[in-house]
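Give me the fold.
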Amino acid sequence: MKLSSLYSNRPEFQTVDFLPGLNVVLAEITPAENRKKDTHNLGKEHFGAVLDFCFLATRDAKFFLFKHLDVFGDFVFFLEIELADASYLTIRRSVEEPMGLSPWVRQTVKRQFAVRR
């Protein structure tokens, strides 16, 4: 079993495809005139929190997605996990729906459950 991808129904969330082996979250500042700024507050911790949310973390009112429902209320996240038999388990987790969890297992191509960009 290995992580395959994390994506959303919203275009503001950039799809993350996990590669075989160790994956590292790295913050890089572009364009060149901004390179001397620090790499804090670029979303590394929030990325981990969204992963945790998809791994069925408890819904906590202090969690950034729920603190800002006006911004994130209509987000739905999809975490795809490749299983040992090469099928995919997709976990769908909605920010707005309290019981917004829907798992699917399929043999077909990846990322068929969200609007793609």
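The chain has three helices and five strands.
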